[in-house]
Specification:
Length: about 475
C-alpha cells in the first residue's frame, strides 16, 4: 500500500472513533502518534551512529516496545497504557537545556488522546508501522503528504490561520535566500512552513558537508503560541531531518518586553506570516513603547521584527492591506520601518490567496535593516488568466510567481524596470501621503463609469419611469378588483 493510501486509511479508521470530533482533533491525534514513530526511527538510526546515544523516551514507552508488534496490546489495555502510562510520563519528563527530552515533553505537554476505542487505535498503529522514516524516499513522500495534512487544517474552523500557502512561503524563502551559518527566526512559526522551505532550499543550494548541515540546524529559531501548530511544527522538523527541534519554543513572542530584546537576540533573517486581524490579550501591548502600543497583533510583530534584525539583516513578512493604509500606530510603524530599513519591495497579492479562512488583500514586504528607504518597488501579483480567483481546488502555486521572480532583478535588484505589473514610488511621494503605502497599480486602466451629473440625471429619470409604471399597475389592479 502506498504511503498516501496508508494515511487515507488511517483517517478513515479514525472517523469511526466516537471520541475524535472533527479535523482539528483528528490531525492532533495523528500528529502525536506519528511523532512517536518518527522519533523512534530516528533514535534507532542515532544509536547506530553514536556510541553514547540515549533515547529521550524511557525504554518501556518507546514505540518499538509497545507499538511495533502487530499482535501487541489492544483494546482497553492499550487505552489504559496510553492514557495512564504513556501520556502521564511524557508530560512530566525531567529536562535540562535544549535537549531531545525537552522536545518530547513539549509535544506532549498539551497533547491529548481523543480516541475511545483501543481496537481502532491498534489498527491505526499497525498502519503507521508500515512507514519507515529512516528510508529517505519514504520520508520525503510522507513529507509531501504531511503538507497536505497541514493544508487540511484550512477546513478545520479557525485552525486555518496556522497555514500559509506553500507557494507563498517558498517564494519568500527563495527571494530572501537564507544560508547555513545565519540565524533564521520565525516569531509566529505556525506549522513550520517558512522553516521547511528554508531548510530544503539551503540543502539544495549550500549544504555540501556535515559542517554545513550542522550550521544550518544550529541557526534555526522559532516560537509558536498555540499548542496544536506547535506540536505539528515539532513533528515537521523531525520529518525534515532536524535532530533537535527544541529551538521551536511554545511561547508568545510578544509577551516578552520589547526593550528586553538586546543585541544578543539579534538575527540575520526573519521569514514570517504574523497573525493578523486578531487582538492580543490585555496587557501585552504594555510590553511595547507607548508610540507602538496597540492590540493589533500584526503591528506588534512588525515593531518587534524591526528591532530583532541585525544590521544588514533581511526580512520578508506577510501583512494585510490594513497595515499599508492604516493610520495612528500604523503610520508611526511605517515611518519607523522606513527610517531603520530599506523597504525595497512590496508584492501585492489578490484577496483570494488565503481563502477560505481569510478573504482580504495581503502583501509581501521585503526589507533590509541598516539603511533608510529611498523608494519602494511595488509588484502586483494577479490571478492566472482564465481563473477568477484562487480557491481550495485551484490554489496559488509557486509557478504563479515566475513573472515576479523574473522581474526581480537578481540579488541586488539592479535590473528592475517598470512594467504593467511593477512600479516605483519615491520616499517623498510616500511622505506626502503620510506613509500611506496603499498605492494602486498606475498602469491599470480604471473602468470608465461616466460623468457623475449625467449618471444622476439618468438615475432620476429611471426612478420617475418606475414610479409611473407602479401607478399604472396599481390602477389596473384596482380596476380588476372592482369588476
Amino acid at each position: 500500500m502506498s504511503i498516501r493510501n496508508t494515511v487515507k486509511s488511517i483517517q478513515d479508521i479514525m472517523r469511526q472513533d466516537t471520541g475524535v470530533d472533527g479535523d482539528a482533533q483528528r490531525i492532533s491525534q495523528l500528529c502525536w502518534m506519528f511523532f512517536l514513530k518518527i522519533i523512534d526511527d530516528q533514535d534507532q538510526e542515532l544509536e547506530l551512529m553514536q556510541d553514547d546515544y540515549t533515547s529521550p523516551i524511557p525504554d518501556n514507552l518507546q514505540w518499538r516496545s509497545w507499538a511495533a508488534d502487530p499482535e501487541g496490546i489492544t483494546g482497553q489495555a492499550l487505552l489504559d497504557f496510553v492514557n495512564n502510562d504513556l501520556f502521564t510520563t511524557l508530560k512530566d519528563l525531567s529536562v535540562t537545556g535544549a535537549s531531545r527530552r525537552r522536545v518530547v515533553r513539549d509535544v506532549f505537554e498539551d497533547a491529548y488522546n481523543y480516541m475511545k476505542s483501543g481496537q481502532l487505535m491498534r489498527q491505526i498503529i499497525n498502519k503507521i508501522n508500515a512507514v519507515d522514516f529512516n528510508n529517505l524516499a519514504e520520508r520525503q513522500h510522507f513529507g509531501d503528504i504531511y503538507e497536505q495534512i497541514l493544508n487540511d487544517l484550512q477546513n478545520a474552523g479557525n485552525s486555518g490561520e496556522y497555514y500559509t500557502p506553500r507557494a507563498v512561503t517558498a517564494f519568500m524563502a527563495d527571494r530572501i535566500d537564507p544560508k547555513p551559518g545565519e540565524v533564521l527566526f520565525d516569531p509566529a512559526v505556525g506549522t513550520g512552513g517558512f522553516l521547511t522551505c528554508s531548510i530544503r532550499q539551503m540543502r539544495d543550494r549550500y549544504v555540501k558537508t556535515a559542517e554545513d548541515e550542522a550550521k544550518l540546524q544550529s541557526g534555526l529559531r522559532a516560537v509558536e503560541k498555540k499548542q496544536l501548530p506547535h506540536m505539528l511544527c515539532m513533528t515537521n522538523m523531525l520529518l525534515h531531518g532536524i535532530e533537535n527541534p527544541s529551538f521551536v519554543r511554545h511561547d508568545n513572542t510578544l509577551a516578552r518586553p520589547y526593550i528586553s530584546y538586546t543585541k544578543a537576540d539579534r538575527v540575520d533573517v526573519v521569514l514570517s506570516n504574523p497573525p493578523f486581524g486578531g487582538r492580543e490579550e490585555d496587557g501585552i501591548e504594555s510590553n511595547f513603547p507607548q508610540h507602538f502600543r496597540t492590540k493589533e497583533t500584526a503591528d506588534l510583530f512588525l515593531a518587534l521584527i524591526i528591532r530583532l534584525l541585525k544590521k544588514d539583516g533581511r526580512a520578508a513578512i506577510v501583512l494585510p492591506d490594513g497595515s499599508l493604509f492604516g493610520e495612528g500606530v500604523k503610520t508611526r510603524l511605517k515611518e519607523h520601518l522606513m527610517e531603520e530599513c530599506n523597504l525595497h519591495t512590496i508584492v501585492r497579492l489578490p484577496n483570494s490567496v488565503f481563502r477560505p479562512y481569510a478573504s482580504i488583500g495581503t502583501n509581501l514586504l521585503f526589507f533590509k535593516k541598516g539603511e533608510p528607504t529611498k523608494d519602494v518597488w511595488f509588484y502586483e501579483h494577479t490571478v492566472p488568466a482564465g481563473q477568477k480567483a484562487y480557491s481550495m481546488t485551484r490554489p496559488i502555486k509557486i509557478e504563479h510567481f515566475k513573472g515576479c521572480a523574473d522581474w526581480w532583478g537578481g540579488a541586488e535588484r539592479k535590473d528592475r524596470k517598470e512594467t504593467e505589473q511593477a512600479w516605483r514610488v519615491s520616499l517623498d511621494d510616500i511622505k506626502a501621503r503620510n506613509y500611506n503605502l496603499d498605492f494602486k497599480n498606475p498602469h491599470t486602466v480604471e473602468e470608465a463609469h461616466g460623468d457623475p451629473a449625467e449618471i444622476l440625471t439618468k438615475l432620476n429619470t429611471a426612478d420617475s419611469e418606475a414610479a409611473t409604471l407602479r401607478d399604472q399597475l396599481k390602477s389596473i389592479l384596482e380596476e380588476a378588483l372592482t369588476r
